[in-house]
Amino acid sequence: MLNKRRSALSAIVSIAFTVAVLAAVGWVVLNRQFVLDQLNVWWYKPTGDVSTIINRAGISDQGRFYYYASQPAIETSTQFNNDCVRQETGSAILGCYVNKRIYVYDVTNTQLDGVEEVTAAHETLHAIWDRMSDSDKASVGALLEAAFTKINDPKLNDRMSYYSRTEPGERLNELHSILGTEYSNLGPALEAHYAKYFSDRSKVVALHTSYESVFDSLKAQSDALSAQLDTLKGSIDTKTKQYNTEAVSINNDAIALKNSSSSVDRTSAAQVNAYNAQRQALLDRLDALNTLRTEINSETDDYNAKVTQYNNIVTSTNNLNKSLDSTLAPAPSV
Hints:
Strand order of the largest sheet: 1-3-2
Number of strands: 3
Distance between the termini: 90 Å
Number of helices: 12
Strand content: under 5%
Radius of gyration: 37 Å
Mean pLDDT: 88
Low-confidence stretches: 16-30
Largest sheet: 3 strands, mixed
């Protein structure tokens, strides 16, 4: 009887072990992505640059998990162009999430400090969206659309039009990354969603605002100069036309006055005074014409100086844009 008991106990243990193994296998199957992510996090050895991004972008521990699980790499132009393919010619990209990996372009222009952190956070949110359930995507998607409507930003509208052309069907995915890294005050529900992945989301938004302000400042300056140039050109054109018309008139009147001088009776004070009055009037008109010429020259000098300023701003803007273009190696700095 004792041996039979042991056999029964052994069978029970064996069954329990089998059930446990099957349960473990079942859990692994059901949570395959999490297991792969955890393995990637354990195996991944972040570089100093990659680690710095976490703190500067205000990413939380949970956000860092998905960031590291995507084995992020900050790459120079040649590597980056091999891993990330731009969708439209002339539209530079700064990062991509491909085959569950994150790639970020190494932007060296110090004027654009923070662009790598924002890009990394943006791509991390793509990795998170990729792992969200359909029901979560639906509920968060509704919040994203509501926030998009409330923001009503023309620049954002243009970007979403670009994504609709290059990545059809990824509207909510892109909104999830853009709003999460670039816009504040998205409403309690959406902020609660992002709070799982950011310990301080204001950091990444501030970084985005900082480098975007460089472009915004240059655009504001170029717009102001463009308006001033239009005004100056209009003034110069009007005064030049006025000057030319008056110059011809003065010249004709001077010739007429000179021709009439021989008929003036020098013994007649009235005729002499009338002649002198006409001559003085011509001289006054000539002085006024010279003053107008001085104004035209001054405005022309001002116009040319502003053209130089405008062109310098255009050059600075182009150089900044080139700094973000991975197809140009090495990226120029300002």
